[in-house]
Amino acid sequence: PDQTPPKDEL
Amino acid sequence: MNIFRFAGDMTHLCSIVVLLLKIEATKSCAGVSLRTQELYAVVFVSRYLDLFFTFISVYNTVMKVFFITSSFCIIWYMRHHRIVSQTYDREQDTFRVAFLVVPCIFLALLVNHEFSMVEVLWTFSIYLESVAILPQLILLQRTFNVDTLTSNYVFLLGAYRALYILNWLYRYFTEPGYSQWIVWSSGTLQTAIYCDFFYYYVVSWRKNERLSLPS
Known about the structure:
The structure holds two protein chains of two kinds.
Chain A: no helix or strand
Chain B: H1 3-26, H2 34-47, H3 58-80, H4 98-110, H5 117-131, H6 134-143, H7 148-174, H8 181-207
C-alpha cells in the first residue's frame, strides 16, 4: 500500500 | 477548493434534491431503483465514518450529513410512504446487489492504501459508488420510464462525475504531489457507465419523441 491520500473530497 | 469540485458537489446535491422533489411532488417513485438508492446509502455511510473523528471544514461536514440523511430519506419514501411505496416497480427492480457488493468488499480488502477498518470501508465505498447506478440502469431499460425528472436526476449525476474528473485534472496540475489512483480509476469507470447511460437516453429519445432529453 502506498501513502494514504487526504480525504478532503466528498 | 476549485470551481470544478464545487460545481461537481453542487450538481450531485441538485441531483438528489431533484429526485426528492420528483417523489414528493408526483407522489411517485416509478422508474427509480430502490436498490441503487440503498447502495448509495451504504456508500455514504461507509465513506463518511470519518465524520466522527476528522474535521475538514463546515462545508465538508454539512455535505456529508446531507448525503447520508437524503439517501435515507429517499429510501424511507420508497419503502414506507403510504402512496409513494405503491408506485415502486418492485417486480422490475430485481438486480442482485450481492453481485456488486461482494466483489467490491474483496477488492477493497485486496487493493487499498492502508489495511485498516476505516480505510478498507472508505475504499469499499469508492468501488461500490462506481457501480451503484447499475440497478437503476437496468430498471430504466426494462420499464422505459424515462420521464423528464428521472432523466434530470441521471443527467445531473453524470455532470457531477464529469466535473469531478475536471477537478482531479485541475488538482493534479496545480497541487504538487496530489495523487489518488483508487479514486481516479473508480471515478473513470463510474463516468464510463454514465456515458453508457447517456447513450441509452439518446437512443430512447430518438425512438420516441415523447421521451425528452434534459435541457
